[in-house]
Amino acid sequence: MKKNILAFILVIAVAFGVCGIASAADVGDLIGVVNMQQLLSSYPDYASAMSAVELEEQKAQQEFESKSGSLDDNGKKALYEKLLERIAKRQKDLLEPLNKKIRKAIETVAKRNGIANVVNSNAMLFGGKDLTQEVLAEVSK
């Protein structure tokens, strides 16, 4: 009787072990990867947003050059920080809507593929399912 119970426990343990190995093999597919840089650069509005940011940087540079001559070091530092904040705000205002659209597309594609976690491809050394092209197609809809 004891042998039967031990044999049964052993069979159950082996069965769970085999299931665990099979599950571990599938885990690699449960993580999605996307190349965010490629997604952003391929997004139609990204180039125009970056052009607007560059224009803002040029305006800030010109403003700094025209005003800094009459300022002391503390005034120059304050002006520089004010201009950096303005550039950062402009960049955030322009890129945040794009990032939201891309993240929504990533979420849609991940759910469609049964993937719970998605990371940037530069953070993944090995494994995972590349969703970049599917996300590009979703964003283009």
Note the run of SSEs as H and E: HEHHHEEH
Strand content: 5-15%
Helix and strand content put the structural class at: mainly alpha
Q: In terms of per-residue confidence, which ranges show pLDDT below 50 for 5 or more consecutive residues?
A: 18-25
Helix content: over 70%
How are the strands ordered across the major sheet?
2-1-3
Instruction: Figure out the total of helices.
Output: 5
For the report, how would you describe the main beta sheet? 3 strands, parallel
Number of strands: 3
Instruction: Kindly report the average pLDDT value.
Output: 82
The span between the termini is: 65 Å
Instruction: Identify the overall geometry.
Output: elongated
Oligomer: single chain
Whole-angstrom Rg: 26 Å
Structural features, described:
The chain is mainly alpha-helical. Strands 2-1-3 form a 3-stranded parallel β-sheet. It contains 5 helices and 3 strands.
For this entry, give a set of tags.
single chain; 141 residues; mainly alpha; 3-stranded parallel sheet; 5 helices
Short description:
By secondary structure, the chain is mainly alpha-helical. It has helices at residues 2-27, 36-42, 46-68, 73-112, 132-140, and strands at residues 31-34, 117-120, 129-130.
